[in-house]
């Protein structure tokens, strides 16, 4: 292999060599010199159960990545997303991948040693629609505390699927906490952690192989434990915490991220463990996109159809944090990549959940709320569109799965709202036309428009009375 120093890799930024990227549209400035030989050693196969086959009816991995156009994952005739074929991975009572809905998850920010506080946060998150909850586990004391949290959930609420986050040199911690959770998440760059040597100028092939073997020996006991317990593993690579040898070999690049994950996947496959989910997180959206696209191609080439966990790490807060997360997660989902998502915000974790469901709703992957179609307003608008949209939403927001269009005039209204279940369209000054699908049902006075819309819903038998408190509006798939 041609080994390079970080400075050499950095000097390659801006090169036109993009052979490792998944498409001609990917970012060529992440390129690094191509290795002359693979560091992958021949897999050691053991007897054991085979990987479960993916279900029929989904896009096959090797065929899926052949289309290098901008329409990867999208059916150009229907506009529907053709999802990448993946094997099912069970996490508690939730299944990630295959033809299952994209799963929403997040992470509480309580100290795991605070058993009551962690229990309360997990319960609150789950009631808000978080289907899998992650907790941090930095010591043996934390690992033991997780057991008490899980027991309390079972007795006082329900058995929420839990993931334990294990980091620096965490084998013993991981083995203990694996007894109590449904999935363990490791970061390959930290799981076998050695402090970088500032005096190092190169990583020889012998040193690289020795470090890889150390990772293998440290990872094998955890894999065997998870395999024997029927539990799952997330191989969670972070752009900001690649191991020193990966940085020297591949540079601080998406390729380094992918190679880091593939090392761990091969260890899992050698031990016939396939309950794996993989993530490639970065705080820069473009790095994240390049890493996931490359990973998907490499997994297809090696016939490893494992589910992907999508996220933009350290996205920040407020509107910009939501925009970054939507750009990264939404782009990949539209390409058919991704089986579970987490939006990472510097806010209370519960605020991440509506963003996740909003992304999925916007792409048509899950319908867990009412879909409102509304024009941006213009000089032709015959009523206060913003006010009326708010009134319609307040009257109907408790009926997930319904699609309602609120259009300001008849010029574009009937055509633009054609896919909606019901329509509220300005017809003439002071008059509103109500539609069922494309068919105009009746014209009513503007001041009773919302009331008449509700009456139409009742007439059609689709109306349900709102409940006083809705703990989780995201139960539908």
From TrEMBL:
Pfam families associated with the record: GcpE, GcpE_C
What is the superkingdom listed in this entry's lineage? Eukaryota
Does the record bear Cytoplasm in its keywords? Answer: no
Cite the IspG C-terminal domain residue spans from the record: 371-458
Q: Looking at the keywords, is Iron present?
A: yes
Question: Which UniProt keywords are given for this protein, alphabetically ordered?
Answer: 4Fe-4S, Iron, Iron-sulfur, Isoprene biosynthesis, Metal-binding, Oxidoreductase
Question: MF terms per GO, please?
Answer: 4 iron, 4 sulfur cluster binding; 4-hydroxy-3-methylbut-2-en-1-yl diphosphate synthase activity (ferredoxin); iron ion binding
Q: Domain IspG TIM-barrel, which positions?
A: 86-357
Q: Which cofactor names does the annotation list?
A: [4Fe-4S] cluster
What is one process in the GO biological process aspect for this record?
Answer: terpenoid biosynthetic process
Database matches in InterPro entries: Dihydropteroate_synth-like_sf (IPR011005), IspG_atypical (IPR017178), IspG_bac-typ (IPR004588), IspG_C (IPR058579), IspG_TIM (IPR058578), NO2/SO3_Rdtase_4Fe4S_sf (IPR045854)
For region Disordered, the annotated ranges are 37-64
**Protein name, per record:** 4-hydroxy-3-methylbut-2-en-1-yl diphosphate synthase
Biological source species: Chondrus crispus (Carrageen Irish moss)
Highest lineage ranks of the organism?
A: Eukaryota, Rhodophyta, Florideophyceae, Rhodymeniophycidae, Gigartinales
């Amino acid at each position: 292999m041609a080994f390079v120093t970080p400075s050499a890799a950095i000097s390659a930024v801006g090169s036109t060599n993009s052979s490792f990227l998944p498409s001609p549209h990917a970012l060529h400035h992440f390129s690094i010199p191509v290795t002359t030989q693979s560091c992958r050693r021949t897999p050691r196969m053991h007897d054991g159960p085979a990987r479960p086959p993916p279900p029929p009816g989904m896009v096959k991995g090797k065929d899926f990545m052949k289309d290098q156009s901008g329409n990867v994952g999208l059916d150009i005739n229907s506009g529907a997303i053709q999802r990448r074929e993946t094997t099912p991975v069970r996490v508690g009572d939730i299944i990630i991948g295959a033809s299952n809905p994209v799963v929403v998850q997040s992470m509480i920010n309580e100290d795991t040693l605070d058993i009551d506080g962690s229990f309360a946060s997990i319960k609150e998150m789950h009631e808000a629609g978080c289907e899998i909850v992650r907790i941090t586990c930095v010591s043996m004391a934390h690992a033991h505390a997780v057991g008490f949290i899980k027991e309390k959930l079972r007795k006082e609420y329900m058995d929420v699927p839990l993931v334990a986050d294990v980091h620096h040199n965490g084998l013993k911690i991981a083995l203990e906490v694996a007894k109590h959770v449904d999935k363990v998440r490791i970061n390959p760059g930290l799981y076998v952690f050695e402090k970088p040597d500032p005096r190092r100028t190169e990583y020889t092939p012998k040193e690289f192989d020795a470090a890889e073997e150390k990772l293998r020996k440290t990872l094998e006991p955890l894999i065997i434990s998870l395999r024997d317990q029927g539990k799952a593993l997330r191989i969670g690579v972070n752009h900001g915490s690649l191991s020193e040898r990966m940085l020297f070999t591949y540079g601080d690049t998406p390729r380094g991220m992918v190679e880091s994950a593939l090392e761990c996947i091969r260890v899992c496959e050698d031990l016939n463990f396939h309950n794996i989910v993989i993530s490639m997180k970065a705080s820069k959206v473009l790095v994240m996109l390049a890493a996931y696209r490359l990973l998907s191609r490499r997994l297809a080439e090696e016939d490893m159809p494992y589910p992907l966990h999508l996220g933009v790490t350290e996205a920040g807060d407020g509107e910009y944090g939501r925009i970054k997360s939507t750009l990264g997660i939404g782009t990949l989902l539209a390409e058919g990549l991704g089986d579970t998502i987490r939006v990472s915000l510097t806010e209370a974790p519960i605020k991440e959940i509506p963003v996740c469901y909003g992304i999925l709703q916007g792409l048509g992957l899950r319908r867990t709320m009412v879909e409102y179609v509304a024009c941006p307003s213009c000089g032709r608008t015959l009523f206060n569109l913003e006010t009326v949209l708010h009134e319609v939403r307040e009257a109907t927001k408790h009926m997930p799965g319904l699609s309602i269009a609120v259009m300001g005039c008849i010029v574009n209204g009937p055509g633009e709202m054609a896919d909606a279940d019901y329509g509220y369209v300005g017809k003439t000054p002071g008059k509103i036309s109500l539609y069922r699908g494309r068919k105009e049902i009746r014209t009513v006075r503007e001041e009773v428009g919302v009331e008449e819309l509700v009456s139409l819903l009742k007439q059609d038998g689709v109306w349900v009375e709102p409940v006083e408190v809705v703990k989780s509006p995201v139960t539908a798939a």
